[in-house]
Amino acid sequence: MKTWTKVCCLAVITSAIAACSSSPTGRNQLILFSDAQMSQLGAQSFEQMKKEQKVSKDKEVNAYVQCVAKTITDHVPPQPEFSEWEVVVFDSDQVNAFALPGGKIGVYTGLLNVAVTPDQLATVIGHEVAHVLADHSNERLSQSQLANTGLQITNAALGGSQYRDVTMAALGVGVQYGVILPYGRTQESEADIVGLELMAESGFDPNQSVELWKNMAKASGGSQPPELLSTHPSHDTRISDLRAKAATLPNYDTIKPNCK
Fold first, then answer.
1. Which of the listed residues 22, 40, 121, 228 has the most CB atoms within 10 Å of its CB?
2. pLDDT value of position 14
3. Which residues, given as ranges, of the chain have pLDDT below 70?
4. How many CB atoms lie within 10 A of CB 230?
5. Which residues contact 82 (CB under 8 A, 6 or more apart)?
6. By the 8 A CB rule, do 156 and 170 touch?
């Protein structure tokens, strides 16, 4: 898997010097925070979540999730701010998972009722890890910083609590705290593609991503809003895009992971 190199430039935005970067798919991004700042914020937020939410003690479930996650992260290029990924399973009916800067991954047990195979779980974890690799949290937090120029979100990110909801939402875990600020449609689609490449390179079947989203569509009970009214791609669009991308990926069955 190729290593993505950030391309930096300088631009003056609202009297601030803002760093421009490119995503894994070549899309221009506004990045205001350093990798060190984002890793610190991710680690702090993760510790907070472990204190406030119930952590699963089920050894079998933990071993299974750890196996799938490790297989994925073993194929991630070395990261500058951390050497190991930490994976925690939260005991909750939420059909959800997330990954934070600093190498933190959370999986909710409710997800296992929808992602019913290792390949399907790998689709979700690969997608969430892709958000980290593509600096999507940094991008959203940077946008929040510019949209709230009177607020010192930088300071909040480094230890303050005044803007906790903003920072949690920007990290992609706001829904756990009653704050709905989802990744944008472009970011979601980008994480789908990058995550699919990652899970396929890790030996999982990319075609199972289609089955996962069929399951997601069933689980939503048709409650998803029309695509034009949502920041996320519709289930149909997502399935179509994933099917097309999966058809272009090599067959990695020779290194099929053994996660049960």
1. 121
2. 37
3. 1-20, 146-182, 222-232, 251-255
4. 13
5. 39, 102, 103
6. no
d(CA 136, CA 187): 7
Contact 126, 202 (CB under 8 A): yes
The answer to whether 128 is a known catalytic residue is yes
Q: How far apart, in whole angstroms, are the C-alpha atoms of residue 50 and residue 52?
A: 6
Q: What is the pLDDT of residues 182-200, one digit of tens each?
A: 577 888 889 999 999 999 9
pTM: 0.80
Four-residue CA torsion sign, 220, 223, 225, 226: positive
The closest alpha carbon to 137, from 215, 203, 46, belongs to: 46
The pair of structure tokens assigned to 251 is 């067959």
Q: What is d(CA 141, CA 33) in angstroms, rounded to the nearest whole number?
A: 8
Those residues with Cβ within 8 angstroms of residue 13's Cβ, 6 or more apart along the chain or in another chain: 30, 146
Q: Which residues of 71-85 are buried (b: 16+ CB within 10 A; e: fewer)?
A: bbbebbeebebbeeb
- Which one from 60, 81, 86, 128 is the annotated catalytic residue? 128
Q: Packing angle between helix 59-73 and helix 118-133, nearest 10 degrees?
A: 50
Token digits of residue 250: 């090599």
